[in-house]
Amino acid sequence: MADLDRVIRTDAVVVGTGVAGLTTALSLRGFDVALVTKTALGGGSTWWAQGGIAAAISAEDSPRLHAGDTLAVGAGLNDPGAVALLAENAVAGIRMLLERGARFDVDEAGRPVLGREAGHSVRRILHADGDATGAEVSRALAAAAAGADHLEVHEHTFVTDLVVDGGRVVGVTARTGAGERIAILAGSVVLATGGIGRAYANTTNPVEVTGDGMAMAARAGARIGDAEFVQFHPTALDAGVDPMPLLTEALRGEGATLIDDAGERFMPGEHPDAELAPRDVVARAVWRRIRSGRKVFLDATAAIGDDLPERFPTVDRLCRAAGIDPTRDPVPVAPAAHYHMGGIAVGLTGRSTLPGLWAVGEASRTGVHGANRLASNSLLEGLVFGESVASDIAGVGASASVRVGEIADPGPNPEPTPDAVAAVRGAMWEGVGLVRDADSLRGALATIGRVTARLPAASGEARNLAEVAAIVAEAALARTESRGAHFRSDHPHPDETHLETAR
Ligand code: SIN
């Protein structure tokens, strides 16, 4: 047994404290759960989400319509069972969130105010404080977790690897903020570690989103699915800031338009739904304009104008911090990596291909989003599938009595390698971005391979980032077609023979 400072035994371990991890952990009431995060409680992408949560709650809407929109945008790659589960349980997910203390924007009669986003055929987006939905979800769930007796919260604790014994995942190793090397052993391990946004030079994701869960699952031999499907958001604020601040799609839902530096509104020529076309279509149109030497702006001055500070306070603050008044001036925008549709391959209950390991939220690949996620389905995914994972674990009866042989030493923190990280991020942006081809993908893989060879052997964020980058690039090379967010200029059309790939 490695020379560990501590071994903790518990029923279940949940890694990650965004909406998916917090929901799973809270719903595992009745079990002792270690809730582990490398940040403070509530870190990750959830807090940053602006637009909202999709749910069919209006009289003109239905789960069937919501599912239909999700499938239409997903370009043929969705798992219909996962989509049905998401749409049919959306209202229950919202109810659970309300019970846990979240508050949404309501009108004078107390009815939720519903926003509109691209790909939705009706208004169905619940939001909080205008455009600070993620912050409200995060606040409510983190407060509930902090007060939950069944949870033992380990903040600032970096999970280095899964502990696998006889083919079964029986825990994790980790380094704590105080420098201890620990193992947490449990009958059920849930990875809710979020996406891979930091693998790209341009991203809306916070710095902690380094693909840790996907990397450690892949190292342990779990199947990864649809890794090539990375969603790029069309309208990140292009003001030289990293991460790039998001300008929510809800602005376009309220009529904001995309124009170039000649003042031309170009989306009507690209798609019948113009600015509300599926996200991949809008993102590529913006990207092509920028690559052709133009600048692109989001213009909310006419459609929203002076109401913007009240209706979109987060956007207003972000723009003003960059010296732009969005009520008066069009705001410079560019696409940025935003969400990973691929991840650890799981079924509807979140079980991975490794016994003892579940994955949930952006870290997982349920097939719910297909090749392109419908806006505001991601917080919902965390709510619905978090509940589903918790029920499954409760059904099998999580237990602390696992047997384990040798546990690998997590080792000390590796030295930071900012140049290596920058090289990977640059290679991913240039070679594995909105438009790829075989040459660009091979070039990126060569750079990632060179960088990886020079990284410290110990598991850390840089190694995880390089490993997930290679997985995404390899999957993109293998998929010789274009579908949803995966666009190959050397194979620009869909090819039905490619409807499913898995690493
Ligand atoms: C946004 O507010 O534009 C993002 C919503 C999402 O990614 O689902």
Count of alpha/pi helices: 14
Structural class: alpha/beta
Return residue spans where pLDDT drops below 50 for at least 5 consecutive residues.
Answer: none
Overall geometry comes to globular
Percentage of β-strand residues: 15-25%
Task: Sum this structure up briefly.
With 503 residues, the protein is an alpha/beta fold. It has helices at residues 19-27, 63-73, 80-88, 90-99, 133-146, 212-219, 250-253, 279-291, 308-311, 313-321, 378-396, 418-431, 438-454, 461-478; strands spanning 6-9, 12-15, 33-36, 53-54, 114-115, 125-126, 151-154, 158-165, 168-175, 181-185, 188-191, 224-225, 230-237, 257-260, 296-299, 331-340, 343-345, 357-359, 364-365.
Question: Please, could you describe this protein's structure?
Answer:
By secondary structure, this protein is α/β, with parallel strands linked by helices. It is 32% helix and 17% strand. The protein has 14 helices and 19 strands. The strands form 5 sheets. Strands 7-3-2-11-18 form a 5-stranded parallel β-sheet, with helices on one face. Helix 1 links the parallel strand 2 and strand 3 (33-36). Helix 1 (19-27) runs parallel beside helix 5 (133-146), helix 12 (418-431) runs parallel beside helix 14 (461-478) and helix 13 (438-454) runs antiparallel to helix 14 (461-478). Residues 50-51, 248-250, 338-339, 375-376, 378 line the site of succinic acid. Succinic acid binds at residues 50-51, 248-250, 338-339, 375-376, 378.
